[in-house]
DNA sequence: AAGTTCGGCAACCGCCTTGGT
DNA sequence: CACCAAGGCGGTTGCCGAACT
């Protein structure tokens, strides 16, 4: 099931992720978040593209991600969502906590597409019922009813899960304050669920508001590239100790400007 | 038992959108 | 307004195990 890994001309690794790579990526994001996907692999000691790292995180390593079989309720909801949204996998993922857009897409292609086709055939083969005028089953009402049903399905599903997050929401999951043990407690998940990024602290790493003053001063604000200059693919792979200590001194150095 | 086909899914690719300059 | 970089999304590919012959 795994793709065998290989390196492209730029020394970027492709294919299946090893456990070691997973651990590095997980540990890095849990400790520092993902402030820049393109630069992240360098700091995490991975010879992967940023895109690849992002995908691996979003689809597989995110602590809230659910693995394993889809429930009947989830499948039913996907069918309804697909009817309503079409191939908007990421939008669909917003209604299915813990499921990635990729997973939903795969599920659709492997199982649900057939089921949807079957369902359609059954509906089409059903004889057309004659409607009494007093039933007032206008087209408008039918649409309204299906919307209501759809809304109810979503409410039921969300009630079953403590999270109502989406892959899109969680892709901005660059929280700080997680421990680096690699384990994820329910507290962590709750923290994540309740987390609302109110500032751009991590997305624009360590650049304080008074940047003008700092730039004019003799001190210079460190940026990640000040710490590491990988010139070859080989040099991008660094020891964890080095990475963590580099990052820590980077934070420490810039902290004085932020206070 | 060996070969072939099929199903499932992780990962890649290329395009589009968005935000910054 | 144009350009560029980064992130995000949907389509597709490729690998592997299971099922079938």
Helix and strand sequence: EEHHHHHHHHHHHH
Helix content, binned percent? 40-55%
Radius of gyration: 24 Å
Number of strands: 2
Q: Helical element count?
A: 12
Based on the model shown, name its key terms.
2 strands; 54% helix; single chain; Arc Repressor Mutant, subunit A; DNA-binding; mainly alpha; 259 residues
Can you offer a commentary on this structure?
The protein has 259 residues and is mainly α. The chain has two domains: 28-64 and 175-258, no CATH class; 72-125 and 137-164, Orthogonal Bundle (Arc Repressor Mutant, subunit A). 54% of the residues lie in helices and 2% in strands. It has twelve helices and two strands; from the N terminus they run E-E-H-H-H-H-H-H-H-H-H-H-H-H. The protein has helices at 19-32, 40-44, 50-61, 72-85, 89-93, 101-125, 139-160, 167-171, 186-194, 211-216, 224-227, 240-258, and strands spanning 6-7, 13-14. A two-stranded antiparallel ribbon has the order 1-2. Helix 4 (72-85) crosses helix 7 (139-160). It is elongated. The structure holds a DNA duplex (21 and 21 nucleotides). One of its GO terms (cellular component) is nucleus. Keywords: DNA-binding, Homeobox, Nucleus, Repeat. It comes from Helianthus annuus. Residues 9-61, 62-112 form the Myb-like domain.
Describe the secondary-structure layout.
Elements: E1 6-7, E2 13-14, H1 19-32, H2 40-44, H3 50-61, H4 72-85, H5 89-93, H6 101-125, H7 139-160, H8 167-171, H9 186-194, H10 211-216, H11 224-227, H12 240-258
Antiparallel strand pairs: 1-2
Helix pairs in contact: 4-7
The structure holds a DNA duplex (21 and 21 nucleotides).
Keywords: DNA-binding, Homeobox, Nucleus, Repeat
Domain HTH myb-type: 9-61, 62-116
Organism: Helianthus annuus (Common sunflower)
């Amino acid at each position: 099931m795994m793709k065998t890994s290989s390196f492209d001309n730029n020394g970027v690794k492709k294919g299946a992720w090893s456990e070691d790579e997973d651990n590095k990526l997980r540990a890095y994001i849990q400790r520092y978040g993902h402030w820049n996907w393109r630069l992240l692999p360098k700091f995490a000691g991975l010879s992967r593209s940023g895109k690849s790292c992002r995908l691996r995180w979003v689809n597989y390593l995110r602590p809230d991600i659910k693995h394993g079989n889809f429930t009947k309720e989830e499948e039913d909801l996907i069918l309804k969502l697909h009817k309503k949204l079409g191939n908007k996998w990421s939008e669909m993922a917003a209604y299915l906590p813990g499921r990635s857009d990729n997973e939903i897409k795969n599920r659709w292609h492997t199982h649900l597409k057939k089921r949807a086709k079957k369902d359609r055939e059954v509906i089409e083969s059903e004889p057309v019922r004659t409607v009494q005028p007093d039933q007032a089953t206008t087209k408008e009402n039918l649409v309204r009813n299906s919307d209501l049903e759809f809304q109810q399905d979503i409410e039921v599903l969300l009630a079953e899960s403590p999270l109502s997050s989406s892959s899109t929401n969680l892709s901005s999951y660059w929280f700080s304050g997680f421990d680096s043990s690699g384990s994820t407690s329910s507290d962590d998940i709750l923290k994540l669920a309740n987390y609302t990024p109110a500032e751009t602290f991590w997305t624009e790493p360590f650049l304080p508001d008074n940047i003008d003053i700092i730039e004019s001063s003799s001190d210079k604000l460190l940026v990640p590239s000040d710490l590491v200059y990988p010139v070859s693919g080989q040099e991008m792979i660094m020891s964890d100790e080095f990475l963590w200590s580099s990052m820590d001194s980077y934070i420490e150095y810039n902290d004085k400007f932020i206070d």
